[in-house]
């Protein structure tokens, strides 16, 4: 008996929602807390993408050019962040770098913790995009450079690095877009402190929990647009590469 | 010397970020003995979470496997308007925040949503969890199968067709055997993602213990309730599943390299 009544009420609410339009959207997306969370999310994702680019290239280099015992095992291990649930990743980092840390390092509920969580979940991206390029790379140019007296560093900077740039960039861009939306690994580590460690996805989640769907939707749309832009950018990059 | 330094830095980075934290979780899990671990993964809530997680994966992964193969065939063999857009759209779940996925489902199926008046309970029940899981694990099979299809070309399929095989026979006897390792690899990745999904599921599940609580949600709840040992035990179970997945990926990669 209450069903038609409820449906009518829901219809009214939907119409009311539709009427509010862009002005309200803008207001929800630009509350001080939402803006601050967005700013932190963008900055921390950029920093993480930069670190991932540097260390990812380094690890890919070691995995391709170096040889040591257990290399196959290390290579398999790189994909662990893809296989491990994000909430477990967060708990894992908290176990080592949290309040009950066995090594006495406690970064829980700080910005560093958020960055570490993002570094963990995006770890494979640059490694897995640089590795195949490095394997395919022609060694002759390097040998030529070396025979002309170039140091190892010069050879890397002038010969190898330019060949790797597209792969590094597309890996880092993927890591960036993944970091922007990451939620599971951060929720336990960040403490979700507004104006400090609060990231956009956690902010949106809290808005949903407190029934402020508009606020959540506004932040979500911003995240979605940035992610799409990055995705299209990567497509363009791949076309440039090909 | 330089080589050694690079190796040490690279391995140190992986160790500090990956290996040591995971090892610590296993250590913390088992430091109170096997009995305690067994007790906390066999509570009624944990058992129900385990079966729910399995059930959701068993629905989502086969559906995505079928969709993935069809999508890959359409992308590689098909010719239709909007193909580029379709190609880009398949990757969307990789780029979208899980919270956005959950919110989208809420806006479509929630009380105030488009289909909210239909009287079907999706949000805060199992169908919502299944939908969220399907969304996040959607691209894996398509993305693993498409390059294999491109690699093998369609000569053998054409040969089968000239010998009088119909479309289904060609697919079953020629295409499917050729893509099988790619397909299995995609299925492994999708399964891992389906079992591990947290954000999207946590928006739509309602987290009712014994009903809509998956393993990952159980980890979070136990942690928030200061049941650290319980959270570690459930995490160790998930981490063990992840390690099995990793082993499967490594073996499958070797198989794939041998078969090409």
Describe this structure in words.
The complex is a heterodimer of chains A (242) and B (260). Chain A has helices spanning 2-29, 32-65, 71-77, 80-83, 86-97, 111-122, 124-136, 139-147, 152-181, 184-190, 200-209, 213-241. Chain A has a single domain (26-241), classed as MetI-like (MetI-like fold). Chain A has 242 residues and is mainly alpha-helical. Chain B is mainly alpha-helical. The longest helix of chain B is centred in the N-terminal third of the chain and has 34 residues, at 44-77.
Question: Layout of SSEs?
Answer:
The complex is a heterodimer of chains A (242) and B (260).
Chain A: H1 2-29, H2 32-65, H3 71-77, H4 80-83, H5 86-97, H6 111-122, H7 124-136, H8 139-147, H9 152-181, H10 184-190, H11 200-209, H12 213-241
Helix pairs in contact in A: 1-12, 2-6, 2-7, 2-9, 5-6, 5-10, 6-9, 6-10, 7-9, 8-9, 9-12, 11-12
Chain B: H1 2-30, H2 34-41, H3 44-77, H4 83-90, H5 92-95, H6 98-109, H7 126-136, H8 139-152, H9 155-162, H10 167-196, H11 199-204, H12 215-224, H13 228-259
Describe this structure in a few short sentences.
The complex is a heterodimer of chains A (242) and B (260). Chain A is mostly helical and 242 residues long.
Highlighted features:
heterodimer, A: 242 residues, MetI-like fold, 12 helices, B: 260 residues, mainly alpha, 0% strand
Number of strands of chain B: 0
N-to-C SSE string of chain A, H for helix and E for strand: HHHHHHHHHHHH
Low-confidence stretches of chain A: none
Helix content of chain B: over 70%
Distance between the termini of chain A: 63 Å
Could you give a short account of the major beta sheet of chain B? none
| Helicity of chain A, as a percent range | over 70%
Q: In angstroms, what is the radius of gyration of chain B?
A: 22 Å
For the record, what CATH class of chain A applies? Answer: Mainly Alpha
- Looking at this structure, what is the CATH superfamily of chain A? MetI-like
């Amino acid at each position: 008996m209450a069903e038609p009544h409820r449906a009518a009420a829901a219809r009214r609410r939907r119409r009311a929602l539709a009427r509010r339009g862009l002005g309200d959207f803008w207001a929800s997306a630009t509350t001080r807390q939402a803006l601050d969370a967005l700013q932190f999310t963008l900055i921390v994702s950029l920093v993480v993408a930069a670190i991932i680019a540097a260390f990812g290239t380094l690890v890919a280099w070691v995995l391709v050019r170096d040889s040591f015992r257990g290399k196959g095992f290390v290579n398999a291990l790189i994909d662990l962040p893809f296989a491990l649930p994000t909430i477990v990743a967060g708990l894992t980092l908290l176990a080592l770098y949290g309040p009950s840390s066995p090594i006495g390092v406690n970064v829980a509920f700080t910005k560093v913790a958020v960055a570490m969580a993002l570094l963990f979940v995006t770890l494979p991206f640059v490694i897995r995009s640089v590795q195949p390029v490095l394997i395919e790379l022609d060694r002759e140019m390097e040998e030529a450079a070396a025979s002309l007296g170039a140091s190892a560093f010069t050879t890397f900077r002038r010969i190898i690095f330019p060949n790797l740039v597209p792969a590094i960039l597309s890996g880092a861009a993927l890591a960036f877009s993944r970091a922007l939306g990451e939620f599971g690994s951060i929720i336990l580590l960040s403490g979700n402190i507004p104006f400090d460690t609060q990231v956009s996805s956690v902010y949106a989640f809290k808005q949903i929990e407190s029934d402020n769907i508009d606020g959540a939707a506004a932040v979500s749309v911003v995240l979605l647009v940035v992610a799409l832009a990055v995705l299209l950018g990567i497509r363009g990059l791949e076309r440039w590469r090909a | 010397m330089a080589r050694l330094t690079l190796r040490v830095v690279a391995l140190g980075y992986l160790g500090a970020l990956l290996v040591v934290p995971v090892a610590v979780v296993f250590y913390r899990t088992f430091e109170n003995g096997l009995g305690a671990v067994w007790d906390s993964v066999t509570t009624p809530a944990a058992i129900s979470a385990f079966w729910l997680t399995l059930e959701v994966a068993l629905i989502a992964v086969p559906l995505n496997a079928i969709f993935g193969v069809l999508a890959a065939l359409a992308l590689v063999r098909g010719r239709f308007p909007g193909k580029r857009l379709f190609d880009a759209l398949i990757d969307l779940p990789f780029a979208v925040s899980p919270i956005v996925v959950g919110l989208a489902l809420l806006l479509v199926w929630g009380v105030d949503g488009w289909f909210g008046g239909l009287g079907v309970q999706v949000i805060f029940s199992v169908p919502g969890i299944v939908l969220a899981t399907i969304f996040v694990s959607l691209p894996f099979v398509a993305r693993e199968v498409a390059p294999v299809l491109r690699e093998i070309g369609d000569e053998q399929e054409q040969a089968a067709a000239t010998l009088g095989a119909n479309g289904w026979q060609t697919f079953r006897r020629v295409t499917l055997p050729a893509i099988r390792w790619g397909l299995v690899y995609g299925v492994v990745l999708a399964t891992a993602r389906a079992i591990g999904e947290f954000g999207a599921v946590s928006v739509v599940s309602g987290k009712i213990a014994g009903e809509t609580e998956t393993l990952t949600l159980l980890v979070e709840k136990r942690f928030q309730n200061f049941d650290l040992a319980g959270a570690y035990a459930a995490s160790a179970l998930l981490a063990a599943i992840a390690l099995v997945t990793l082993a499967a990926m490594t073996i499958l990669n070797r198989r794939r390299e041998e078969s090409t």
